[in-house]
Amino acid sequence: MKALRDVFGDTLVALGWTNPNLVVLDADLANSTKADKFAMAYPDRFLQMGIAEQNFVGVAVGLASVGFVPWLSTFTVFFTHRAIDPIRMLVAQTHANVKIGAAYSGLLTGLTGKTHQDVQDIAIMRAMPEMTVLAPADAIEGEAIIRWATDFQGPVYLRLARDASPNVFDESYSFVPGKTILLREGSDVLIISTGPQSVRCLKAAELLGDQGVSAGVLHLPSIKPVNKDEIVSASEKAKLVVTVEEHTIYGGLGGLVAEILSEASPRKVVRFGIEDRWGESAPNDFLLDLFQMSPQRLSERIKALI
Questions:
Q1: Residue 11 CB partners (closer than 8 Å, separation 6+)
Q2: CATH number of the domain at 181-305, please?
Q3: Does the predicted TM-score (pTM) go above 0.85?
Q4: SS3 102
């Protein structure tokens, strides 16, 4: 079990040995995002841009235009709220080969509080043309996605949680953009999630199984693109579909699933997530219970629905 921010730093260091064009730009948070690991390994390919998020997006686009592969690193909230205009105009509209390493995503941001918690980023980024949106569940998937994104030609938004998450994949894992992953089969309810929340959903499904409820879990590491047929097929095998996300219920994963099923296989979709409110500064376990996304709270909510 390894924190995704450490996976970010370590994987970029490993890739730097074979890719001399790989560069990392940081907005004064390298110690938190672990981009400082790349800085120590390759000081001549690390650019500390200071608290200037809009500017470092523009610099990255310039570097990409002459053949470099730039990874941007800062907190999620600063990408989607401070730097969204240059991301839209300079990265997405020009299809620039820029990779966005969005650290400290969601609620669990290490006591940073509502000012630094961004639970709107999926809605913002998946609505942006030309943008690929990815959210790994664990360290193994995180490394695979970072490697894939580095080789991919075009903009990538990578949603990275701060802390460690138990591994659900092994070393045989291979990332395929758009592909969904059925972590557990079930006929009473299908739980659809993304990022590390999928791991908590898997634990909730196990708790439901102990109570006689057959709960499946479908993990979406690739939010955009996504395989719509796989979501429809998995949903049609369950009596109820529940989406769970460490994100607002407006416009995020729940919205994505509801859009797909309303067009291809109309059925009831219950969306669990952040319900039109700000986060709080508190330990992870407290926040998961407060927003009813811990395995225990999820199992209770789903059991009540059934």
A1: 142, 143, 146, 147
A2: 3.40.50.920
A3: yes
A4: strand
